[in-house]
Structures are given as structure tokens and as C-alpha cells.
Design brief:
five-stranded parallel sheet, 5 strands, about 45% helix
Amino acid sequence: MRHILVPTDFSETAQAAFKYAVELCRDLRGKITLLHVSHTERVNETLMGLDAVGYLSSTLDSPSTTSEYSPSFDTSALKNIAHRKLDECIALARCNGVSIEAAFEEGRPSVKIVEYAREHEVDMIVMGTHSRGPVAHFFLGSVAENVVRSADCPVLTVRGKSKVQD
């Protein structure tokens, strides 16, 4: 395992997967690519609902630039915040002696993750998986599940908080 891809949406489960990947790379002397896929053209209050947009903003620590019920949503701010968070993760991994780079893609997350892995000769994908109920899973699907089904390389899914100590 010389090249591990870690997709991130900056959630708690993505952070847990990142910690596992850092430990793997430190032991194997490999490289991590931390990938964030922005699907911002689909981010709006009409499609997602105000609660989902609020969750996304709070997950990314986005400053409130619009009112809670505003019909517009500044996706460029989300992209800037995502780039900043990628830089923060990279700094943390480098402090742990791990070779790491960041990548940013736009599009459907499961598709872009698999494409990136194929195009960059990734040996393994390490990603978080969210626990959703059966109804939410039916309507929303699972990025991790789609990646597991489509990827040409092994996919390690990490659930919940990491047991790896900071």
C-alpha cells in the first residue's frame, strides 16, 4: 500500500477514517491523498431543504452570510472553507511524518472518488461511512456503498469515532 486515497466531507466519520489512514501510511511509509468532492451545484435550499443546508454550513464552520430562510446560498464560500480545511488536515498529517497531498474535485462524490482512484493509481481507499436509517438510505443512498461497489481497489470503511489515539 503505497498510495491511500481518503475522501473527506469533514464529518466526524471522515476524520476517523483520516486518522486510520495516517496510521497506515506512517507504518507503510506510503502517501495519502486527501480528497474533497464538492457537489455545490446541487446545494440549495430547494433541493436539500433548509435543515440540510444548515448542517452542511455548520459542518464546514461556514459563517452565516445569509439568513436561515434565504433563497440564495453562497457556494463559493463553501469551496473556500473546504480548501482551508484540507490545508489544516495536511498540516496535521505532516506533523505526524506522513507524506500527504490534497485534491479537490467537483461533481457527484461517489463517481469522482472512484474516477480519482483509477486515474491516480490508488492502492486503497479509506473512507468514513455514516449510519443512516433504512428510509434515509433508500432515498439518499450511500457514497461509501457506491464506492465499495465501483472501485477497482480495496475500500476500507470506518464508522464513528476513531480508536486511534491523537
